[in-house]
């Protein structure tokens, strides 16, 4: 099983990941509002953090979706949102502790990272190596948990 890992210390804020994701999803535009990855700027700290779905082991979005539009792909282990089933209630958005599920106001449905079917374009186009698509083993899992806590703490502190 593979997952996207993020090393914010390597991110240069180029936003290639956002544009690659947006283009992959639209096939015609680099409109970053529709990207499943977002680069958050912490200007005072001079720090940028790319954020995308962590495909959590205990995925609250999957548990709270009343339309059963969210499932786990058995091959990639990705948490997948089927927009054709989405009721647009935004419960998944409210349940995500990282704010990594977004809403398309025109289509009135949620959207999130699907790992591009196992070949994430954000990783392919990351020039600094901040994004990696790696096999999950115990060491990476521990690192990811530590990073998740650090990012969550930074995110909560930034919103005070």
TrEMBL record:
Is the keyword Transit peptide in the record?
Answer: no
- Asked if Iron is a keyword of the record, the answer is yes
Task: Please list the GO terms describing molecular function.
Answer: 4 iron, 4 sulfur cluster binding; metal ion binding
The record's keywords, sorted A to Z, are: 4Fe-4S, Electron transport, Iron, Iron-sulfur, Metal-binding, Repeat, Transport
One Pfam match, by short name? Fer4_6
The cross-references to CDD domains, in alphabetical order and at most eight, read:
DMSOR_beta_like (cd10550)
Q: Which residues form a coiled coil?
A: none
InterPro entries noted in UniProt = 4Fe4S_Fe-S-bd (IPR017896), 4Fe4S_Fe_S_CS (IPR017900), ET_IronSulfur_Cluster-Binding (IPR050954)
Residue intervals of the 4Fe-4S ferredoxin-type domain: 2-31, 44-75, 77-106
PANTHER family per UniProt: ANAEROBIC DIMETHYL SULFOXIDE REDUCTASE CHAIN B-RELATED (PTHR43177:SF5), PROTEIN NRFC (PTHR43177)
Q: What protein does this entry describe?
A: Fe-S-cluster-containing dehydrogenase component
State the species of origin. Answer: Enterocloster lavalensis
């Amino acid at each position: 099983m593979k997952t996207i890992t993020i090393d914010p210390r390597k991110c240069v804020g180029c936003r290639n990941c956002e544009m690659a994701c947006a283009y992959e999803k639209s096939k015609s535009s680099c409109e970053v509002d529709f990207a499943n990855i977002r680069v958050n700027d912490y200007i005072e700290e001079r720090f940028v953090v790319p954020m995308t779905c962590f495909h959590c082991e205990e995925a609250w979005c999957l548990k709270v979706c009343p339309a059963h539009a969210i499932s786990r792909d058995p091959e990639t282990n990705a948490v997948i949102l089927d927009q054709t089933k989405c009721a647009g209630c935004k419960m998944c958005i409210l349940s995500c502790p990282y704010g990594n599920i977004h809403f398309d106001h025109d289509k009135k449905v949620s959207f999130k990272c699907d790992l591009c079917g196992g070949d994430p374009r954000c990783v392919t186009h990351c020039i600094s190596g901040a994004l990696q698509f790696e096999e999950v083993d115990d060491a990476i899992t521990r690192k990811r948990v530590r990073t998740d806590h650090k990012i969550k703490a930074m995110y909560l502190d930034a919103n005070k």
